[in-house]
Amino acid sequence: MGPGAKRSFLQSRISVKLKYAMFLRSPMPIFNPLFKVSEFRLKLYPQNYKECLRFYRDVLYFPIIQQWDRKDSKGVMFDTGAAIIELLWDGSSVKAKGVDISVQVKDVWTLASKLKGKVKVIHPLRDNAWGDTSYAIQDPAGFEITFFTNH
Question: Judging by DSSP bridges, how do beta strands 41-44 and 84-89 pair with one another?
Fold first, then answer.
């Protein structure tokens, strides 16, 4: 690398570092139109696809937006009101770890009452120090679903 190329390389590195430092010091925008989310989907790959399908449809009563059943893949999309939960099966699904679902609802107390005896409860209704009441259950694939209502 010649002296001119080396200087140009160093100048570009300094320029990038300065721009990054300016970015870190600038106030963050309240809204970035480049990253406006128009739809959010949580994609789950349960081993027991049919059991999970029945759970989200028949126990939680999430309406189905779209469903397909092909030879090598199956899928269903549920409308939660604020996002879409998508169950997918491709014959090789493995149980996911490190994924929990939190859903804000209008009345967690009534929901807990309606689900009583139909679901595996992880924790019963409880008031949390951060200002909500929550209730957590487990779906058939082992995913934790926490429903909460703000006070």
Answer: parallel
Number of domains in the chain: 1
Cα 113 to Cα 23: distance, rounded to the nearest angstrom: 49
Amino acid 31 reads: F
Q: Per residue in 36-53, pLDDT tens?
A: 667 789 999 888 899 999
Q: Global pTM?
A: 0.70
How far apart CA 141 and CA 44 sit, in angstroms, is 9
* Strands ordered across the beta sheet of 41-44: 41-44, 84-89, 74-79, 64-69
- Determine which helix (DSSP H) or strand (DSSP E) holds 26, and give its type and residue range: none
Domain that residue 70 falls in: 33-150
What DSSP element (H or E) covers 86?
A: strand 84-89
